[in-house]
């Protein structure tokens, strides 16, 4: 079904979908699995749900995102959030640099979509979302995907932030900014930046993540505009 088909048939499709969701009988439809090229030339496995399922994904995101945005995500986290983008991260980074914290532990998380199962993902949600019907729907939705955080799902960006929020928890005492999956911790000395680098690496390891070796480094005298770049 195309979006045009859905618009033409909305008078039938939407009431039926609403009834299935209310009764708890909705089940995900088939996926279109493909590989797409990224900005950097790499291949990205992707799963595209049906247009009806994408409505469900968006409805679930609309329901849970305000609670997660208010309670799960730190103020120093931007990207995949309403009204928070690279400019937000750059302003925060510029503030730390202007305060004299010129050494930066710049760490990019590798493969943040990999190695997550449904039970673990629902557990992350359940820390903040306590409605049983919503959690059951989330479990059904995620079980219909090859992997909960696979690109193509309407929930994938939110789930990346939710996974990385597990990394963020022990780092709140650092001078730190995260944009999407890129962490920058600011320090006055090289030794302080190195300590922050290993603290972030250890926090990633606790949820089976690791720094991208090619994109992670200690920067000295960084310019804010050089941070949080695609493939930077």
UniProtKB/TrEMBL annotation:
Q: Where is the Reverse transcriptase domain?
A: 45-218
Domain of life assignment: Bacteria
> Which keywords does the record carry?
Nucleotidyltransferase, RNA-directed DNA polymerase, Transferase
Q: Name one GO molecular function term.
A: RNA-directed DNA polymerase activity
InterPro entries associated with the record: DNA/RNA_pol_sf, GrpII_Intron_Splice-Mob/Def, RT_dom
Q: What is this protein called?
A: Reverse transcriptase domain-containing protein
Q: Which organism is it from?
A: Haloechinothrix salitolerans
């Amino acid at each position: 079904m195309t979006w045009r088909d859905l618009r033409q048939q909305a008078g039938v499709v939407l009431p039926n979908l609403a009834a299935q969701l209310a009764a708890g009988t909705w089940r995900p439809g088939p996926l279109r699995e493909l590989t797409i090229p990224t900005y950097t030339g790499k291949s990205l496995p992707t799963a595209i749900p049906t247009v009806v399922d994408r409505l469900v994904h968006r409805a679930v995101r609309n329901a849970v995102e305000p609670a997660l945005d208010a309670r799960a995500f730190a103020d120093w986290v931007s990207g995949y959030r309403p009204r928070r983008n690279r400019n937000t991260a750059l302003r925060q980074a510029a503030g730390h640099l202007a305060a004299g914290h010129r050494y930066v532990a710049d760490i990019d998380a590798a493969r943040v979509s990999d190695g997550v199962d449904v039970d673990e993902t629902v557990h992350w949600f359940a820390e903040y979302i306590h409605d049983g019907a919503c959690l059951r729907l989330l479990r059904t939705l995620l079980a219909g995907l090859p992997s909960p955080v696979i690109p193509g799902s309407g929930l994938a960006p939110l789930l990346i932030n939710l996974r990385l929020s597990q990394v963020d928890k022990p780092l709140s005492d650092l001078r730190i900014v995260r944009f999407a999956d890129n962490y920058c911790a600011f320090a006055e000395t090289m030794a302080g930046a190195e300590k922050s680098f290993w603290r972030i690496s250890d926090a990633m390891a606790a949820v089976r993540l690791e720094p991208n070796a090619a994109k992670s480094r200690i920067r000295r005298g960084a310019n804010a505009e050089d941070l949080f770049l695609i493939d930077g």
